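Homework help board

Subject: predicted structure for assignment chain

Our instructor gave us this sequence and asked us to write out the predicted structure in token form, then describe one feature. I got the tokens but I'm not sure how to describe them. Can anyone check?
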Amino acid sequence: MEARRRNGRRLLAAVVALALAASAVACSGAEESQPAPTTEAGFRPGGTLRLGVAGPTALDPALAVPTEQAEMIAIDLLYDSLATDANPAEPDLAESFQPSEDHRRWRIVLRNRVFADGSPITAEDVKFTLERLARLGSASLAGTRLDIVAGYEALAVERTASELSGVRVLDQRTLEIDLAVSYTQLPELLGSPLYGIVPRAAVQAAGDRFGEQPVGSGPYRFVGRDGSVVRLERAPGPAGEAAGPDAVELVGFDTVGDSYAAFEDGRVDWSLVPAERETLAEAAARYGTGAFRSFGAELWFGINQHDPAYADVRFRQAIVAAIDREGIARQVFPGRLPLRGLVAAGVPGAADDACTTACAYDPDRARALLAEVFGGGPVTTTVVLDTYDDPSQIELIEAVTADLQAVGIPVEHRVKPFEEYRSFVVSGEADVFSFGWVGINPTQEAYLGPPFLSGSRDNVVGVSSEAVDAAIIRARATPDAAAREALYREAEQRLLGDGVAIPVVQLVTNQVVAPRVNGFAGRLDGTFDVTSLWLAD
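My token output:
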């Protein structure tokens, strides 16, 4: 238990993902939306695209928060990664990925590309970028995911090394990455905007102020700030030669409401919509839902596998069966998607409804299981529901309480201030706890490996299952997509069947786009390809 607590305190999941319920990502009633209808008639490349953003926006990928859509969009514009943010990924700054037969060594050859200041993008810059993230440890979700690279422990955890030994520069455009495990989806991992490549010389010269005047590797370059407006223009070289607007302006506002008001007035071309139900309904009626998109962040309850109170799998299964998850999702989180598994909807390979049997609402089954566990007598174990002091979270545990009590399970609440809860939930002392998770790339691995693999720093539920581990490890090493997806689904079914976690909701990005913008198609991480857009005069 103590080892788990030490690991838990370093989890970025507590720093980032738990903010989901109160994040600025707005939600809509759309299920899985399609891109807005497009036509090129009356539209042309060029012009200036104005994006309304709320609050400060980090322009340094090492500081970006994956649940903050504006930051993800900004770094996606300013920086390119080695691969595209897709599944399957395609090479981007990389010209090729060449894995060994066991997928533990990857040779990466870079394209002949330059940064916004004209300097070449080299293998040294890639190594520097990865080491910079790894050194942040649990303060960076992207950094934590590099724990599969050989030498991560020595650099990021033990602090006994000065470099990431598994990343070696062979020449100016070639590097090798040695992994501690077989891992076939390294390009998908490194395709996240969070791994945008930065120039070593510029970062070392600027230090902590790099984000104030960033030098990027992507299709747009930082030009300057004018009050609350950050202006980006096409970058030099091949990255900036794609079609799309000549310039993008990030127009800052204090709140999402202010940004949306500016959109309504025609002062910006894109904005999130405030999460109030009436505003969402009005926006959908007025502007349509063509830009609404499922977002790769989710909320579930974890059941502490180390707590003796929940040691009997039948008791955990009874808790899961007693909860009307979809009814609660509609009641407490209107407009968000009911989470029907552990892998977010929209991820390739995700099961349409992993909870069909494993976590289906079935009060009669819950009562039967409880009768087995407690010999037909009253339930003598009290379930403690842990959460933080947010109104929606309080409403959530009250709804869960009603369902549990309806089948005879006594319940207590433990509500903590949010800042305290962030540490408590990874301490190993929580019982049945509300938890948010975000995958940084559109893969099943992002939702099943880090939070549920034995020994993982992000394994907040404390599950240790040989069968789950075997399925995930085999999946990581399997090149064939269909076979790999089946193995991940096997792991997911085992986790759900063992009552490890209780899915609740998935977020939906509610965004509106002006009629003058053509070709918009949102991604699961909240970004979109600006270079594919055409603007009307």
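Reply (TA_rk): Your tokens look well-formed. For the description, you could write something like this. The longest strand covers residues 293-303. That's the kind of observation they're looking for.
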